[in-house]
């Protein structure tokens, strides 16, 4: 799947921007089972009264999405105001319909706005501008492209597409289900998910910070070898942003450092909370701009391998005073730390989905490559 995480923010009903509308019809024999599984994937906080005999309404990538049944036919309507997010929302629905129905799923074809185009409105062709070393294990690549305003909001992450060396890139296009159709064979693309560390849409460039590993993965090699003028594709944005709250708790290792750094830079001056960032040692620390009310603390592994400590879980437990209102918790880290922090948020603090965002960015023992997120449009 090439989406990241659905946005929780609804489209402003008073917006005069022309609305885009698409429709999908699919035969579904087990209505109750389908709806249960669909909502488990996309909206765990949905009201329990929602059922197959009433209209189910939720927001996916700022698009009003409505599901209803007529007999054994599922009818989906997706409405939005921005072509990129509208296309992604359609793709999210199609992906999960295919996933739930499996072999019983017929070919999916959307009708309405966007049905007659192969263009992926959330895709951009980008050109490498420069590459520089930030710390022993972090490298920054600047990319330039056109019409980047949509990448400044709606999520922190993008998916970069690396074409084969020595070949002119063949980029994906939209299929009838609104899902990307990918080039194959000699034109197959390598993809990785990253955080946009900084974006200047008017100037037409984004900065991507890449964590360096040994042995290097595809993203590491790209960041080290990228030459000015080389082309890459970019899909997004999506996932990873922090909600609005009175108090925040940020937790992350170096793979989440670019995301935490960008969130802190863009927060209002009166924001309050704490941020804990785990790195190998002092040489990996970066000078980060952040509100005065956000206390920033670096946690050093001091020789321990990445993904083997409980530094972030321990910080989470000591940061929240018993009986005090819980903060909004944002965390990105290794899989075991992710499980521990998510358990703490849900079981100990009793946080709902809208009150925390905890993501596994990587898994020890699996291929380690860059700051790719496990749950992460792009």
Describe this structure in words.
- By secondary structure, the protein is of the alpha+beta class.
- The chain folds into 3 domains: 20-112, TATA-Binding Protein; 123-235, Elongation Factor Tu (Ef-tu), domain 3 (Beta Barrel), CATH 2.40.30.10; 248-370, Rossmann fold (3-Layer(aba) Sandwich), CATH 3.40.50.80.
- The protein has helices at residues 31-42, 83-101, 218-225, 257-266, 311-319, 335-348; strands at 20-27, 56-60, 63-70, 73-80, 111-112, 123-135, 138-144, 157-162, 173-174, 180-181, 190-200, 205-211, 231-238, 248-253, 273-279, 294-300, 328-334, 356-362.
- The strands form 4 sheets. The chain has a 6-stranded antiparallel β-barrel.
- Helix 5 (311-319) packs parallel to helix 6 (335-348).
- The protein is globular, with a radius of gyration of 21 Å.
